[in-house]
C-alpha cells in the first residue's frame, strides 16, 4: 500500500502539494492532466531560463530544484515516462524571454526526442533555445549511449548559478557542454522500486546487491554479494574514473536508504578518498522507494566550486561541504569512573562468561519478541553489552563483589544503549552500595532492584523485567534452581498481561501484547536458567 489516491492523479496531486508548500515561490501552468510544469513564480524573463524535467518518480528532481540559482521550470511526465512535446514546449514558452533558454536533458530516448522536438518548435516560434544532454552513467563503460542520472544535478547547479548572475546563453551552454564529459555516476541497490499500482519485483535476492541499477528500476550490470557499506562504496569507486583533479562527490539516496545508512556510506566515501568535497548525502534524484545509493563525481575546473557552493533557497538542495577528518575532543574531567583494581576468581569469571554467551545466543529470539511490543532491539542491545563485558573481564575485580557490582554497572552504562543500560547501571551500582554496607549477594541484588523501582517507577505486574527478576531474587534463598523456576514463571506470566504500565510496551496496543512475553523478563529468565545450569 502507498499513500496515494488514484494512480492517474498521482503526479498532478504531488505537484499541487509541492506548489502549495512553496510559500508562494512556485507556480504551475494550467493544462492538467497532460501539461504538468512547475515554474518560478518570480520569473521575469530577463535572464537565461533553465528548463529540465523528465519522468516523475525521481523526486525531489526535478521540480524540487526550481528556484533562484537552479531551474526556472521543470516539466513533469508520468512516473518514469517522458513528458510530451506539448508539455515541454509549454514550459519553454512560459519562461523564455530575449535572453533565451537552455534545456538540460537526461540521456533517455524519450526525453531526447520530446525535448529535442519541443526545442525545434520553440526555435520556429522565434525563441533562442539550446539543449545539452547529460550521459553520466558509467555502469556500462562501452555503452554508446550512456544514460543520464544524478550527475545531471551538477549541470543544474552550475548552469543555474551562471544564469542567476546574468551570463548569456552561449556562455552557459558552452560551460554545460564542457562540464558534462567530466561527470561520472554509478549506483548500487539492495532492492528494486515499487511502481505505483504494481507489485514490487523481487529481483534481488537476500544477501545480494545490484551494481549499476539505474533510476527507472532497470536491471543493473551484475548482482554481487553484499558485504557491507565499505565494500559497497569500494565497488562503486572502482568503476569511477581515476583523477587527480579537485573532485566533488554527490551522495544520492535512491529512495529509501535511511539517514543512518547514508552517514555510514558517507564515512566510507571519505575513507575511500573519492573526493575532497561533498554534496549530500541526501535524496536528490531517487527511483521511488529503491533501497540504494548512487555516487556522482565531477572533476572541477577553476570557478566551478564557487558556483556549486553558491547558496540557493530550495530545501531539497543540501549545499556543498569540504570533507574533513572528525575533530576529536578529550572527554571532560570526571566523566570516566575510577578504574577498579583487577582481581581473579575463576568461578565468577566462568559464570559471567556463561551468561554473556547465553545473551549473545539469544539475540535473535529476544529481538523477535521485542518486535511485538517495541522496536525489536532488546536482543541486540543485550548482546552488544554481553560482548563488551566478556572482553572486559581481564580488568574486572572478579574476587570482590563490593567492587564488582559497581564495575558491572559502569560497564553496562557505557556499552548498553537505551533505557536498559541505565536501568542495569542503577541496579548494579545500588547493589554495590549495599554490598559495601555488609549485605550478602542476594540482599545486595534485592537492594539494587528496589532502587530500580524507585527511580524507574516500574513495579511487579507492570510487564517489565521486574516480573521475572523480583520473584527470582525472592526465591534465591531456596537455591538457584528455585530462583530459575520463579524467574521462568514470572516471565511466562507476562504473556497474559495485556496492558503494560511501564516501559516502551506501555505505548503499544493491547492486541499486540496478548500472548507474547515481555522480552526483558524473558532475558532475565534465561539468565537464571543459565546460572542454574552453570552452578549445578
From TrEMBL:
Matches recorded under SMART domains: Dak2 (SM01120)
Record bears the keyword Glycoprotein: no
Family annotation (PROSITE patterns): DHAK, DHAL
Pfam family, one: Dak1
Annotated keywords: ATP-binding, Kinase, Nucleotide-binding, Transferase
Domain DhaK: 6-317
EC number: 2.7.1.29
GO molecular function, one term: ATP binding
GO biological process: glycerol catabolic process
Tagged with keyword Methyltransferase: no
One cellular component (GO) term of this entry: cytosol
Domain DhaL: 346-533
PANTHER family recorded: TRIOKINASE/FMN CYCLASE, TRIOKINASE_FMN CYCLASE
The name this protein goes by in its record: DhaK_2 protein
Highest classification ranks of the organism: Bacteria, Pseudomonadati, Pseudomonadota, Alphaproteobacteria, Rhodobacterales
Amino acid at each position: 500500500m502507498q499513500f496515494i489516491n488514484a494512480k492517474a492523479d498521482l503526479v498532478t496531486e504531488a505537484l499541487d502539494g509541492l506548489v502549495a508548500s512553496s510559500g508562494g515561490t512556485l507556480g504551475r501552468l494550467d493544462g492538467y492532466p497532460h501539461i504538468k510544469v512547475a515554474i518560478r513564480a518570480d520569473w521575469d524573463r530577463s535572464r537565461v531560463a533553465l528548463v529540465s524535467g523528465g519522468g516523475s518518480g525521481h523526486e525531489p528532481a526535478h521540480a524540487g530544484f526550481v528556484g533562484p540559482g537552479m531551474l526556472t521550470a521543470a516539466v513533469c511526465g508520468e512516473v518514469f515516462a517522458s513528458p510530451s512535446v506539448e508539455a515541454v514546449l509549454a514550459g519553454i514558452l512560459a519562461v523564455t524571454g530575449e535572453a533565451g533558454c537552455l534545456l538540460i536533458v537526461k540521456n533517455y530516448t524519450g526525453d531526447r526526442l520530446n525535448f529535442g522536438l519541443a526545442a525545434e518548435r520553440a526555435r520556429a516560434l522565434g525563441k533562442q533555445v539550446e539543449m545539452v544532454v547529460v550521459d553520466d552513467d558509467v555502469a556500462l563503460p562501452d555503452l554508446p549511449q550512456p544514460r543520464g542520472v544524478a550527475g545531471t544535478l551538477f549541470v543544474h547547479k552550475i548552469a543555474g548559478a551562471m544564469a542567476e548572475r546574468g551570463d548569456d546563453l552561449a556562455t552557459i551552454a558552452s560551460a554545460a557542454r564542457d562540464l558534462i564529459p567530466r561527470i561520472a555516476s554509478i549506483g548500487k541497490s539492495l532492492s528494486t522500486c515499487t511502481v505505483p499500482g504494481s507489485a514490487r519485483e523481487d529481483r534481488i535476492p537476500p544477501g545480494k546487491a545490484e551494481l549499476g541499477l539505474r533510476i527507472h528500476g532497470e536491471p543493473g550490470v551484475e548482482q554481487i554479494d553484499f558485504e557491507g557499506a565499505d565494500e559497497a562504496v569500494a565497488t562503486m569507486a572502482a568503476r569511477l574514473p581515476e583523477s587527480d583533479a579537485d573532485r566533488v562527490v554527490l551522495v544520492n539516496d535512491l529512495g529509501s536508504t535511511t539517514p543512518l545508512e547514508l552517514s555510514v556510506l558517507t564515512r566510507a566515501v571519505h575513507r575511500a578518498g573519492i573526493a575532497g568535497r561533498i554534496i549530500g548525502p541526501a535524496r536528490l534524484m531517487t527511483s521511488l522507494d529503491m533501497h540504494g545509493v548512487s555516487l556522482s563525481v565531477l572533476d572541477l575546473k577553476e570557478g566551478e566550486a564557487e558556483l556549486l557552493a553558491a547558496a540557493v533557497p530550495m530545501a531539497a538542495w543540501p549545499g556543498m561541504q569540504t570533507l574533513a577528518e572528525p575533530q576529536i575532543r578529550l572527554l571532560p574531567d570526571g566523566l570516566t569512573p575510577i578504574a577498579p583494581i583487577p582481581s581473579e576468581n575463576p568461578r565468577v569469571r566462568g559464570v559471567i562468561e556463561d551468561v554473556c554467551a547465553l545473551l549473545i545466543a539469544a539475540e535473535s529470539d529476544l529481538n523477535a519478541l521485542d518486535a511485538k511490543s517495541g522496536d525489536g532491539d532488546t536482543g541486540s542491545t543485550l548482546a552488544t553489552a554481553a560482548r563488551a563485558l566478556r572482553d572486559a573481564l581481564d580488568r574486572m575485580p572478579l574476587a570482590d563483589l563490593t567492587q564488582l557490582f559497581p564495575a558491572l554497572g559502569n560497564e553496562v552504562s557505557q556499552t548498553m544503549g537505551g533505557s536498559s543500560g541505565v536501568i542495569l547501571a542503577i541496579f548494579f551500582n545500588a547493589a554495590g552500595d549495599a554490598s559495601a554496607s555488609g549485605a550478602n549477594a542476594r540482599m545486595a541484588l534485592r537492594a539494587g532492584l528496589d532502587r530500580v523501582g524507585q527511580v524507574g517507577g516500574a513495579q511487579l505486574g507492570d510487564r517489565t523485567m521486574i516480573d521475572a527478576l523480583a520473584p527470582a531474587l525472592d526465591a534465591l534463598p531456596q537455591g538457584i534452581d528455585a530462583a530459575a523456576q520463579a524467574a521462568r514463571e514470572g516471565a511466562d506470566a507476562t504473556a497474559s498481561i495485556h496492558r503494560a504500565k511501564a516501559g516502551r510496551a506501555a505505548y503499544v496496543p493491547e492486541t499486540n501484547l496478548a500472548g507474547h512475553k515481555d522480552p526483558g523478563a524473558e532475558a532475565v529468565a534465561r539468565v537464571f536458567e543459565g546460572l542454574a545450569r552453570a552452578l549445578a
